[in-house]
Amino acid sequence: MSKLVWTEIDSCCSLPTRILPRVEMKLIFCAIIISSFILGACGNSTSDDTPPVMTEEETPLQNQEDEVTESPTVVEPTPTAEIVIPTPAPLIHTVQPGNSLGQIAQSYGVPIELLAAENGIDDYNLIQVGQEIVIPLIEDEEE
């Protein structure tokens, strides 16, 4: 076995420090080098630089290559679906006793002129109980 040497390095603490012999230092150094090689070999390689090697049995024959021709693959385009925005169903108001065209227009927030024109009404006072009034849709000015 190797001989251990103890020396006092720091005089204020007076604690002995071990100085490793040369053989132990070489062993530690070799262990570090070997472990770094092992860890390096365990890493995954992301690129394959070497092309695959074919044996004689796997090598395609020249005559077979001439006979077989590949036809280009035709990719059919997928049809895109048309986006259809459904028009909302018309809003219909049935005239009740005491209703006037002005009240109906005001309750739906529609100008009376537009309401009368949509329903073909010439005289605003000539509506009947049970009559169905189509309420026109007004698009917001923000759109």
Features:
143 residues, alpha+beta, Membrane-bound Lytic Murein Transglycosylase D, Chain A, two-stranded antiparallel ribbon
Notes on the structure:
The protein is of the alpha+beta class and 143 residues long. Among the domains are: 37 residues; 45 residues, LysM domain (Membrane-bound Lytic Murein Transglycosylase D, Chain A), CATH 3.10.350.10. It is 30% helix and 11% strand. It is built from 4 helices and 4 strands. The strands form 2 sheets. Strands 1-2 form a two-stranded antiparallel ribbon. Strands 3-4 form a two-stranded antiparallel ribbon. The chain starts with a strand and ends in an 8-residue tail after the last strand. The model has no long low-confidence stretch (mean pLDDT 76).
| Structural classification | alpha+beta
Q: Which CATH first-tier class of the domain at 91-135 would you pick? A: Alpha Beta
Indicate the low-confidence ranges by residue numbers: none
Radius of gyration: 48 Å
Q: How many alpha or pi helices?
A: 4
Under the CATH scheme, which architecture of the domain at 91-135 would be assigned? Roll
Q: Which shape, going by the Cα principal axes?
A: elongated
Q: What's the N-to-C terminus distance?
A: 93 Å
Give the SSE string.
Answer: EEHHEHHE
Largest sheet: 2 strands, antiparallel
Number of strands: 4
**Strand order across the largest sheet:** 1-2
CATH superfamily of the domain at 91-135, called what? LysM domain
CATH topology of the domain at 91-135: Membrane-bound Lytic Murein Transglycosylase D, Chain A
Provide mean pLDDT, rounded: 76
Report the β-strand fraction as a percent range: 5-15%
Q: What percentage of residues falls in helices of 4 or more residues?
A: 25-40%
